[in-house]
Amino acid sequence: MIQLVTATGTRVSHPEFDRWLEDIDAERLCALYEDMVVIRRIDTEATHLQRQGELALWPPLLGQEAAQIGSGRALRSDDFVFSSYRENGVAYCRGVDLTDLLRVWRGNVSSGWDPFEINMATPQIIIGAQTLHATGYALGIQNDGADAAAITYFGDGAVSQGDVSEALVFAASFQVPVIFFCQNNHWAISEPVGLQSRVPIADRAPGFGIPALRVDGNDVLAVLAATRIALDRARTGGGPTFIEAVTYRMGPHTTADDPTRYRDANELEDWAAKDPITRMEALLTHEGLFTPELQAGVAAKADAVAKEMRAGCIGLPEPEPMDVFNNVYSTPNSQLERQRDHYSRYLATLAGAEGSN
Amino acid sequence: MSTMTFSRAINAGLRKAMDDDPKVLLMGEDIGKLGGVFRITDGLQKDFGPQRVLDTPLAESAILGTAVGLAYRGYRPVCEIQFDGFIYPAFDQIVAQVAKLHYRTQGKVRMPITIRVPFGGGIGSPEHHSESPEAYFTHTSGLRVISVSNPQDAYSMIRQAIACDDPVLYFEPKRRYHTKGEVNENQDLDQMPSMESAQVVAPGTDVTLVAYGPLVQTAREAAMAAADEGISIEVIDLRSLAPIDFAPLEASVRRTGRLVITHEAAQSGGLGAEIAASITERCFSYLEAAPVRVTGFDVPYPASKLEKHHLPDLDRILDGVDRALGRPNSLSGLEG
Ligand SMILES: Cc1ncc(C[n+]2csc(CCOP(=O)(O)OP(=O)(O)O)c2C)c(N)n1
Ligand SMILES: [Mg+2]
């Protein structure tokens, strides 16, 4: 497993990976730190909003900040992301509007943003399905002769899905510019990763003819370097890469889950010691960068973002009743138009009945 | 106008669509060098190259799933499912992704994907090669489902399906691939009757008989046979299974007062049930008899030596017509 920063924050050199990080100066290192703190704040704020009844559900990414920021920050704007539901950190890197991020979890819409505005598909709930979408998109990139890449995010549970295996087959056969980014957070709801795979997940990819990298997913620099290596391969006609980022889901599966029913508190403690943000703080301390100014600046940014997001969430207008019929098709559909017409007549009778009271 | 087989007509329609739009590409199993097991894509890889006519690895979910990604990238994939019974591995991608993405994204993402499905029986095949799975898809909001019954429609409607910005399942009656007909290839898309319209293919006054796909021909033969006995059957080719174009059905039933629907698919929860219920809702006071369904049985598709019992044929359709007319029939004397 590739690691460039130890759990106690010591930078270790790596013959192959270091050269992919030459541009990471003090300022960029601090920016990565800020991203991780901000996204953790977004995540906790959203969890609070759910507890306060403002969101129907939220899938926390607590503990996975380095995996998401390190990979998300490696991407170019013309790359395209196909993720699951948990990659809110990646969406943040893509520049998602904070209100758009929450729209879907409040239940106002089925998905929150325009995929073509930030070149990221909206969250995929069907486990593994998006790996095929990324592969097809990459096939399109290849046909277009472009040098962009597609990246797909999925979990350790997803690797048992047929769609993921099929995506690996297609990607290898057609040698398309796609990155399979697996966040092994050790749990698929209550099922431990050992139930999905008897071998390290990354070991599967070579069997499909796809090179794999297994990185410490709580080490933002290792993740950034690995993603850059994979992107470079994709852009230069080298085909797909599989990255397993070994990380840990420190929170529940979603706000509806109770992990005390299935996992040992000691395990959480072990992983808390490898927390990606405290690790980054230790590294910055070693480098003499963890100054009060940095801390104050980052805290202020996180506060501002959380405040903006909360206000956006609470201010969302309720959807209109007739919205339920919109956009099933791109052009009118006679059978559906009839149902729309009948329902609007029905609503009108209710309004009339109210009026007569 | 030229005379061509049903399968040639689909081929010609695909070729025209590919000529007209460089974003159209075909994907499927054995569709390249071989030209598909039914030769529908014959010669297309040779002329358009392997980037536009892709032989895919053998995985139906991946064919549809990668088509979704291609659609995100601005392509118009046309996916061939080799046989009806092999569409099920792709069911999840079709129902959970292809059908829903436009709605999920409030219209931001379009899925102009065409899914060609050779369907239906009558060719003496083993299991999984003769099925009629259309109702699974007509039940799924977000999909358009059409079925063609003659070479002209095969040609026109494949072009319309590909040009459509919504996903379209295009059901091809494989037992009719070799029938010939006149095809006008010189029509613009907007000159053709909409692929969503039902059409009266034989006018009549006593009974309305609705069919689609392979059974349109059988229905027409039944109408001719009935004419010899002085019974006038109006045959309607449904063409679009989702949405259904009810207007011509309603107009016909208001005149005839009697409705028979026939399809190869099993009866329960099938298209016949939907049509019978809808026409009853819309034309109740015009009906002079309960709608009648003449369909495949509620059984897994049987062995080929038994399929002649399962498939509605001319005589079973006429028996249904007799029931609708209150004439002596196989169920005379039975209550309910
Ligand atoms: C096809 C499918 N089956 C089951 C589910 C229910 N489900 C939602 S998340 C999940 C676990 C996924 O685990 P993993 O892939 O490790 O991702 P993580 O949640 O850990 O990010 C399951 C079983 C689903 N969404 N889709
Ligand atoms: Mg997991």
Protein described:
The complex is a heterodimer of chains A (357) and B (336). Helices cover 47% and strands 9% of the residues of chain A. By secondary structure, chain A is α/β, with parallel strands linked by helices. Chain A has 2 domains: 18-319, Thiamin diphosphate (ThDP)-binding fold, Pyr/PP domains (Rossmann fold), CATH 3.40.50; 327-357. In chain A, strands 1-2-3-7-6 form a 5-stranded parallel sheet, with helices on both faces. A two-stranded antiparallel sheet of chain A has the order 4-5. In chain A, 45% of the residues are buried. Chain B starts with a strand and ends in an 11-residue tail after the last helix. Chain B folds into 2 domains: 2-191, 3-Layer(aba) Sandwich (Rossmann fold), CATH 3.40.50; 199-325, Rossmann fold (3-Layer(aba) Sandwich). Chain B has helices at 6-20, 44-48, 60-72, 91-98, 101-104, 134-138, 151-163, 215-228, 246-256, 271-283, 307-310, 314-325, and strands at residues 2-5, 24-28, 53-55, 76-80, 114-119, 144-147, 168-173, 180-183, 199-202, 207-211, 233-237, 240-242, 259-266, 292-296. In chain B, strand 10, helix 8 and strand 11 (233-237) form a beta-alpha-beta unit. With 336 residues, chain B is of the alpha/beta class. Classes of the chains: A alpha/beta (357), B alpha/beta (336). The structure holds thiamine diphosphate and magnesium ion (MG). Chain B: Its cofactor is thiamine diphosphate. Chain B: Keywords: Oxidoreductase, Thiamine pyrophosphate. Chain B: GO terms for molecular function: magnesium ion binding; oxidoreductase activity.
Annotation keywords:
heterodimer, A: 357 residues, alpha/beta, Rossmann fold, 2 domains, 5-stranded parallel beta sheet, two-stranded antiparallel sheet, 7 strands, 47% helix, globular, B: 336 residues, 7-stranded mixed beta sheet, 5-stranded mixed beta sheet, 35% helix, 20% strand, binds thiamine diphosphate, binds magnesium ion, thiamine pyrophosphate (chain A), Alpha-ketoacid_DH_E1_comp (chain A)
